[in-house]
Amino acid sequence: MNAADRASILVVDDEEGVRSFLADALSGAGHGVAQAADGEAALALVATRSFHVVLTDLRMPGMDGMALLREIRREHPDRNLAQMVQAGTFRGDLYHRLSLFPVQLPPLRDRREDIGPLADHLIRRIGVSLARPDLTLTEAARAALATASWHGNVRELANVLERSAILADASEIDADDLALLPEIETVPGAGAGAAAPTTITDMERQAIERALAATGGNRRQAAARLGVPLRTFYDKLKRFGIS
Q1: pTM to 2 decimal places
Q2: Which of 17, 58, 160, 212 is most solvent-facing, going by the fewest CB within 10 Å?
Q3: How many domains is the chain partitioned into structurally?
Q4: What confidence tens digit (pLDDT) does each residue in 208-238 have?
Q5: Residue 177 sits in a domain of what CATH number?
Q6: Which ranges in 6-111 belong to alpha helices (H)?
Q7: Distance of alpha carbon 212 from alpha carbon 217, whole angstroms
């Protein structure tokens, strides 16, 4: 991409996974990208730099996306791409390629084709943060992630992957290593899946049952996998009635 085709883009999103995923994709396409985690941080960047495009989430804590765009237009009325095109200071064809409108992003469970690339991107970042850059997902793990019933969005996926990475012994995270994965979606009429944990107690019980299943019932290994003392693990087994 030559300099004339290169746009300067600001990506604003409070979900780090979404923000970095978009930034990496746009950077890979040859554009210059900056990131901000909220509206206030975005305004601070806009005050010091000029951007061709601001790509923002609409729902964010504090200042939402529409309020951010209104504030940018109020504080910087001279930064208007349409006027710059008319003045000949910005290419018209690039403007039309970058012209954006608000897009309603569906929940993660409704765009399962995005789960694999997102999971791979997140696990790479998690691996770097844990000083384990060789962390990867097996095909079985990707399949389990793609069929889980995601009630949240990218943040829920990131939390599952981070817990799994912390508990995993090997560099490859398999389906059995996925910690507190939401219940698997079932085909209507095929019977109900396991209920999703709704309390801390339910989550603890499910984590213990998964750890035991993954270690073939070896309690010492299951306790180590969960990072709890063996005595505490036995106390929880007794409290939850798990034999």
Answers
A1: 0.44
A2: 58
A3: 3
A4: 887 788 888 888 888 777 666 788 888 888 8
A5: 1.10.8.60
A6: 16-28, 39-48, 65-75, 81-87, 92-98
A7: 5
